[in-house]
Every structure is written in structure tokens, then in C-alpha cells.
Amino acid sequence: MKTHEETYEEANKKIDCIVVDKKVKEGMVLKRFKIIGYDENIPGLIAHHLAGPSRKLLLFLHGLGGSKEDILVFEEFVKNLGFSIMAIDARGHGERKLDLAGLQPELILEYLSKTIVDNRLAIDIAFRNHWVEEGKLILAGASMGGILGGVVAGVDRRVSGAVLYVPGGDLAEIIVESNEPTLVNLRSKIPSQLLSLVKPILAPVDPINYVDKISPRPLLIQLGKYDDIVPFKNGMKLFEKAKEPKQLVLHDTGHSIPIDKAIAETVNWIRKNFSHLLE
Asked: Which of 178, 176, 152 is nearest to 164 (CA)?
């Protein structure tokens, strides 16, 4: 199988974007779009201020079981901070929804790899459509999206800085120890004697191998101290592997960290590291 980096280099020459719906809602312009020309259409959603794109963009990677609509929790970025916010559906999610529990491990791995590619193609489209300009792209990802976002930010230098909510590194260990039902089901399909051998197979989609490459761009990681979905120790492994400038915020919670506090910490981090984006 080709690496996600090889696949991206081939795919980005073929894609185009069509807007399939546009409406005004609660002080924002919402555009639903599809990226076409890759192996399957990629559904996306972007929200602008009523005045139009500011060319400051927050790209969000949603978690397991989520969808592109989850980006709307960041609506204050549009209304109060002048950002546009954008997300696509990960493979097997949202408009592309599949029964993930019924998939074989090798197909799940392929979906993770292609979701990395899809988000990089979304970045291409954002620049091509003037939704963002250089130095003004913040990537945010939660849980699965935080894991894959760590890879995207590591390999794509167009990302100016990254915020990862409840991510983790060492995917093989996460699969073994997580209490997330999909992962519990996944490890039941992998013979126990083979679990120790999956680390090199997962390496291309494991942020532990990419997070250090985000430097010298700023990184914020937010973790729940009692997380047993993406175990806290794996979040700490990822933070420890990252290089400066980096910041860690710990919440006294499990995997579900408080959204309002997480966003407030994110705004403070942007104010500290990207003050020009809040002017």
C-alpha cells in the first residue's frame, strides 16, 4: 500500500471542489462542498462571517463517530474572532458513514490513512479558494481527529499551529488498553500473539512518529487526567515526544473534556502565539 504522503502527491493534482449548498444561519454563511476527483467524493462544511472569508481558518478533524458538523462548536471563532471554520467527514463517518464495527482491521487502517490525505486535500482547496492564506491556518483535532491531526500537522507545513484535544501516541498500545467499544471490538479481531507486531503496521498513521515535526510551529495539547478511551499516559507520551514550542493543559476529567474550557484555553493559546490573528 502506498504511503499517505505518496497518495497525497498523486491526488492533489486531480481534485476540484463544488459547492452543493449555501445558506445563512445564526450570523454565519454555511457552505457545504464536495472535493471531487480523488477515489471518492469528500464532503465538507465551511462557515464564514457574513462579510465573507477572512482568510484566517480553523480546520477541525472530528472524533470517532463524529462528523463535519461538529465544527460548529467553534462558532464563536466566526462570530467573535473573525475566523472561518472548516471540516470534512472522515472516512466511514457523516455522509460517508459505515458500520465501523463490521470492518476488518486492514480496511480501518486504510481509512485512517486516507482521512489524512483527505484533510490535506481540504487544505489545498482552502488555499485555492482563498479561504485561507499563508500563516493563518490553525489545525484542531479531537480524539481520533487529534491523533490524525498530529500526523497532518507534522507532514504539512502549511499548518501554522496545532491544537490536539485528547490525542495519544503509540496506537498499538492504545488499541490494547482503550475501553472505547470500537477498539475493544477491533482487538478482538487481532490474535493476541499478533498484537505486539502491529506497531510497525500502524507507524504511518501514528502521531508519535510525526508530532516532533510540528516544531518550530506552536502546539497545544489538552488531556483528561482520567481518560481511559485514549489513555492519559498515551497523551503524555505524545506531548513528551513533541518539541518546543509546546503547551499542555490538563483537565480533571476523563475523555470528555469540557468544551467551553477547552475552547477558552485554545483562544488564550492563539492570543499568545498568533496575536496578529486576533487583531
From this structure: 152
223, β-bridge pairs: 250
State yes or no: pLDDT of 246 exceeds 70: yes
Least confident interval from 8-22, 63-77, 115-129, 192-206? 192-206
Residue 255: all three cell numbers together: 475523555
pLDDT, tens only, 170-197: 999 999 899 999 888 888 877 766 767 7
Q: Which pLDDT score, from 0 to 100, does residue 193 have?
A: 66
Q: Is 201 helix (H, G, I), strand (E, B) or coil?
A: helix
Instruction: Of 32, 132, 116, 124, give the one whose Cα is nearest residue 72.
Output: 32
Residue 19: its H or E element: strand 16-25
Q: What's the rounded Cα separation, in Å, for the pair 160 and 156?
A: 9
Cα torsion for 89, 109, 171, 117, to the nearest 10°?
-50
Instruction: Compute the distance between CA of residue 157 and CA of residue 23 in angstroms, rounded to an integer.
Output: 32
Are 183 and 174 in contact by the 8 Å Cβ rule? The answer is yes
